[in-house]
Every structure is written in C-alpha cells, then in structure tokens.
Amino acid sequence: MTLTGALRRQLRSLSHHLDPFVLVGKGGVSDAIVGAVNVALTDHELVKVRLPQVDKGARKRMASELEARARAELAGLTGRVAILYRRHPVEPTIVLPA
Fold it and tell me: pLDDT tens digits for 39-78?
C-alpha cells in the first residue's frame, strides 16, 4: 500500500498524541529494533520511533531501513521521530479512506 500525501497527513495527525514506542540507539537499526517495531506495529498499527542524534541524512536512512525491514509505510519524519504505519492484517483499528 502506498500512502498519498493526504493519508500521510491524516496519520501524522493521529500520531500527534502518541509517545515513541521504540528508541533507536547509537548502534542504529538492528534485528532487535526491527523486532520491537514489528511487535509495536502489530499491536498499535501506528507507532513513533525515536532516532538517535545523528545528522539528517543518517536519520533518513535509518527511517527508510526501518520502513523496508518492518514492511511498513513511513508516514512522516519530523526531527528525530519517525512515524510508521502498517495496517493490522485481521482487525484494523485505523480506518483510512480508500
């Protein structure tokens, strides 16, 4: 599923009140981090991930890697926070327009 700009905007607004579920350390994206993101996405569909304090390009690469490895969609990257979305396969709680 590819998110349009309007859907990304809607997901970012839904995530506004959320706290980061997963914190990525200086070591970057590891298998354990991807596993934690997968669990959080399965439980909540929409999660925030706090990235380490590195340069902007490195944060973008980490967010892209998380997106690919977790089979999720990147709804936004604001500063050090990446917002990831993956629809629940059985019981979705977030209803997006088609």
Answer: 999 999 999 999 999 999 999 999 999 999 999 999 999 9
Q: Which amino acid makes up residue 90?
A: V
CA of 40: how far to CAs of 47, 53, 83, 97, in Å? 7, 22, 12, 23
Q: What's the mean pLDDT when you consider all of the chain?
A: 93
Q: Which residue has the tokens 């599923």?
A: 1
Q: What is the per-residue pLDDT for 76?
A: 96
Contact 46, 16 (CB under 8 A): no
Task: Read off the pTM.
Answer: 0.93
> 48, 77 in Cβ contact below 8 A?
no
Torsion sign across C-alpha atoms 20, 23, 51, 74: negative
What token pair was written down for 28? Answer: 């970057």
List C-alpha distances in Å: 31 to 1, 5, 8, 65: 24, 30, 26, 11
